[in-house]
Write a structure and sequence with these properties.
Elements lengths: L11 H9 L3 H8 L3 H6 L4 H13 L21 H5 L2 H11 L25 H6 L5 H15 L1 E7 L6 E12 L3 E7 L3 H8 L2 E7 L5 E11 L2 H7 L5 H4 L8 E16 L3 H14 L6 E6 L1 H13 L2
Antiparallel strand pairs: 1-2, 1-4, 2-3, 3-6, 4-5, 5-6, 6-7
Length: 306
């Protein structure tokens, strides 16, 4: 029996069976490897819809404008038109990096004691704030813009170690997705190309803070760069002109946690002093959390209303 060295050497019948088991992104990738698979694999409307339905069933981020041909949506007619959507490209990139995979590790959490009837995290219990998603996102966006500067954490491909760098916010999209200018030849772009998972942390002088986790895309199209370009960038990455090193890092916000002041300085000082005397956690901030579904729903609303 002849030794099989590649997928193309398998019988066409097996190619068809394999293709039927592939999700849309994988089928599209295989389709474009050679003419044989291009003719064989059907990546039509049915496969696109099946992929989107699977994402909806798993609670993963969806198209904020829906699939179709309306404003904010995308067309399913051709692969080229479907993938022209920025949201589809983001979902495809997340698929490529397995960013939507659910960890198979144990869900057991670290614990060093049994607190009984008392809250395990008294600070969170006392400060957690259950505002509407709209209010949470809008307050977070305002806080981030007010801070302007934040620390971007990426992972080094060779060592796996985390690295943080100070970045200046260049703009936002869809309410809370963040834009930053970059030199495309710098180390952080290599790290983001290796692993797009990223975290942005912001802190001000009053102790208010925000942590936004997401996935990064490196954009090099001139239209996006011109939209956010500022003359001060000449000192860091050169003139806009024809310099191909100027790029934009777009962080698709997936989850966020932040804390903003709930009262004035005197009231916070009183709460802290009282807590020191009584051992009771002080109520000094609005601690807010935004889940992946919260942010996906908000972005869908933003697109639908613009």
């Amino acid at each position: 029996m002849a030794t099989i060295h590649s997928l193309t050497q398998l019988p066409t019948e097996l190619h068809l069976l394999i293709a039927r088991e592939l999700a849309y992104p994988d089928a599209l990738s295989l389709k474009h490897t050679c003419r044989h698979f291009y003719r064989l694999i059907n990546t039509g409307v049915r496969l696109k819809v099946a992929w989107l339905e699977d994402r909806r069933r798993l609670g993963l981020p969806m198209l904020t404008g829906g699939a179709g041909t309306g404003a904010g949506g995308c067309t399913l007619k051709t692969d080229q038109a479907f993938c022209a959507s920025r949201e589809v490209r983001t979902m495809m990139e997340r698929w490529r990096w397995h960013a939507d995979c659910v960890s198979s590790m144990s869900t057991k959490q670290f614990s060093n004691t049994d607190t009984g009837a008392k809250p395990a995290d008294p600070y969170k219990e006392k400060n957690i704030d259950h505002a509407s998603v709209k209010e949470k996102v809008e307050d977070l966006a305002a806080f981030v813009k007010g801070c302007k500067y934040g620390m971007m954490t990426t992972r080094q491909g060779k060592t796996g170690l985390l690295v943080s760098r100070c970045m200046a916010l260049a703009g936002t999209e869809d309410g809370i997705d963040l834009l930053f200018h970059t030199n495309t030849e710098s180390g952080k772009t290599d790290e983001l190309n290796s692993d797009p998972h990223v975290n942005m942390a912001f802190l001000n002088g009053s102790g208010e803070w925000a942590s936004i986790g997401g996935n990064a895309l490196i954009l090099t199209d001139r239209a996006t760069i011109r939209k956010t370009y500022a003359p001060s960038l000449k000192a860091w990455v050169g003139d806009l002109g024809d310099d191909p090193r100027i790029g934009v890092i777009r962080i698709n916000a997936v989850t966020a946690t932040y804390a903003i002041a709930d009262r004035n300085f005197a009231a916070r000082a009183y709460e802290i002093a009282k807590g020191t005397l009584t051992g009771e956690a002080p109520n000094v901030q609005k601690l807010r959390e935004l889940s992946q579904q919260d942010l996906a729903d908000y972005k869908r609303l933003v697109v639908a209303t613009h």
